[in-house]
Amino acid sequence: MSDSKFVVIDGSETEYREGETVLHAARRLGIEIPTLCHDDRLEPAGACRICLVEVEGSRLMQPACAFRTAPGMVVRTNTTRVDRNRQFIISLHLADTVADRDEAEDVSISRLHEYTEKYGVAEGEWQHVGSPREGRPDDENPFIAFRADRCIVCAACVRYCDEVEGVSAITLANRGGRTTIATADLRSLDHTTCEMCGGCIAVCPTGAMTEKPALFYGKPERELEKVRSTCNFCGVGCQIDINVDRNANRIVKVTSPPPGTTVNDGNLCVKGRFANDFVHHPDRLTVPLVRETDGRLREASWDEALERAVRGLQGVKETHGVDSLAFISSSRCTGEENYLLQKLARAGFGTQNIHQCAAT
């Protein structure tokens, strides 16, 4: 390799950055290298092997997700040798999981099957040989299901649980072809250190880890509309993608946006990912209510409800003075909503009595 301060990938030059992997250098050039086990939040593992590329001067192909660039390095990502390796590795993964795409993507999108189609791999080309991988289908926790027949043992879920959440609730168990995802003493996730964040679901490339409520609903993610929103359970402001079945007008599940695109970096807690049933609860208020003189509540329009609230606040101010009013905001509101409430208190009613329950 020369002393050039550039890296050449598929004939295109990009500036060499110390410590950068071939994968990230290629992304800066807009060159896609497929991965299954990689996630930017995790340390590279090089487990799935479909990201192997040719590096000039190296006899063996190298995993782009883990191989560091060097000044003057020349990389090729789309040669016949590379394509043949990808097709071969994808075929081996298919032989180790559910090969039929419709069956495999009954709930979650499978990157493995997306690559199967993209790289022209024939389903069923390789047949699974050996003992079937065993899981724990009767895990009693209410949120996370592990389906061993879809697992390719990339261990992304295990690494996320360890490296990002720091709880190490799941691990690799058994050996060889029987290696699977498990917990200590095969306990239910309810009886481990698991925080039910669902991060294992987010990083799983095949749908082996999936949401139990969505599994019971039985609607493929491809048929759902994603609506970007802000989680309202605390003041962090995590961005979420609400997956909606428009035909039924129902939320099926909540997923996290890709890492590196939002303030929460693709991470969610148990409430943000799973606590959405209240939206469809029969007792949920869906219209404003105003109280009549006899104490009974009746439905009203937003204009009437807001007018009643303004009249009541102004009446208190006129009768008892501005300091008789106080405004309390919620940490479940966004920063913008909290700003508007203090603006209402100070500019609208002239009081400094404004507080937020998280005191932020």
CATH topology of the domain at 6-78: Ubiquitin-like (UB roll)
Structural class: alpha+beta
CATH class of the domain at 6-78: Alpha Beta
List the uncertain runs.
Answer: none
Helix share bin:
25-40%
Largest sheet: 5 strands, mixed
Report the radius of gyration as a whole number of Å.
Answer: 26 Å
What's the mean pLDDT score? 91
Strand order across the largest sheet: 2-1-5-3-4
In total, the number of strands is 16
Which percent range describes the beta-strand content?
A: 15-25%
Question: Short summary of the structure?
Answer:
This protein has 360 residues and is α+β, with helices and mostly antiparallel strands. It has ten helices and 16 strands.
Write the layout of secondary structure elements.
Blueprint: E1 6-9, E2 12-15, H1 22-28, E3 52-55, E4 62-63, E5 74-76, H2 80-95, H3 101-104, H4 111-118, E6 144-146, H5 156-163, E7 171-173, E8 180-182, H6 199-203, E9 209-211, H7 212-217, E10 225-230, E11 239-245, E12 250-255, H8 270-274, E13 289-291, E14 297-299, H9 302-320, E15 327-329, H10 335-348, E16 354-356
Parallel strand pairs: 1-5, 15-16
Antiparallel strand pairs: 1-2, 3-4, 3-5, 6-9, 7-8, 10-11, 11-12, 13-14
Mind explaining what this structure looks like?
This protein has ten helices and 16 strands. The model has no long low-confidence stretch (mean pLDDT 91). The protein starts with 5 loop residues before the first strand and ends with a strand. The longest helix is centred in the C-terminal third of the chain and has 19 residues, at 302-320. The protein has helices spanning 22-28, 80-95, 101-104, 111-118, 156-163, 199-203, 212-217, 270-274, 302-320, 335-348, and strands spanning 6-9, 12-15, 52-55, 62-63, 74-76, 144-146, 171-173, 180-182, 209-211, 225-230, 239-245, 250-255, 289-291, 297-299, 327-329, 354-356. Among the domains are: 6-78, Ubiquitin-like (UB roll), CATH 3.10.20; 224-283, ADC-like domains (N-terminal domain of TfIIb), CATH 2.20.25.90; 289-356, no CATH class. Helix 2 crosses helix 4. By secondary structure, it is α+β, with helices and mostly antiparallel strands. A five-stranded mixed sheet has the order 2-1-5-3-4, with helices on both faces. Helices cover 26% and strands 17% of the residues.
